[in-house]
Amino acid sequence: MDEEEALARLIALAGTSAPDAALLRAVVEEASELGARRALARLGLADEAARDDVSDLRQLLGAWRDAKKSVWAAAIDWATRGMLALIVVGLAVKLGLPGLLK
C-alpha cells in the first residue's frame, strides 16, 4: 500500500467516527510524510544520490565561506600595510630623510 492510499484510508476512517488523538496524529504524520516526499521530488532530491549531492553542496559552500574569509583577511592586511607605509613615508618626508636617500 503506498502512502497516498494509506492517507486516504486514514482520512476515511477519521470520517466514519469521532476521531481520537491517535488517529488524528496518524493522519498528520502520513500527510506530512507525503508532503515532504513530494517537496523533495520537486527539488530533485528524491533519488539515492541526493544525500551525496547535499553533502557536496555543503562542502562547496564551506569552501566558499573559507575563501571569502581569506579574501577579507588579505584585503585588511594589505590596507594595514599600505597605511603603515604611508605613515613611514610621511615621517621620512617630515624629518627630511629623502635627502639622505639621494
Question: How would you sum up this structure, described in words?
Answer:
- This protein has helices at residues 3-16, 21-43, 50-94, 98-101.
- With 102 residues, the chain is mainly alpha-helical.
- The protein folds into 2 domains: 1-46; 51-102.
Uncertain parts: none
Our count of domains comes out at 2
Main beta-sheet strand count, sense and barrel state: none
If you compute it from the alpha carbons, what radius of gyration comes out, rounded to the nearest whole angstrom? Answer: 33 Å
Tell me the number of helical segments per DSSP (H or I, 4 or more residues long): 4
Apparent shape: rod-shaped
Question: Which class best fits the helix and strand makeup?
Answer: mainly alpha
The residue fraction in helices comes out at: over 70%
| Mean pLDDT metric | 85
Question: Based on DSSP secondary structure assignment, what is the total number of beta strands?
Answer: 0
H/E element order: HHHH
The proportion of residues in beta strands is under 5%
Distance between the termini: 92 Å
Topology:
Layout: H1 3-16, H2 21-43, H3 50-94, H4 98-101
Summed up, what is this model?
By secondary structure, the chain is an all-alpha fold.
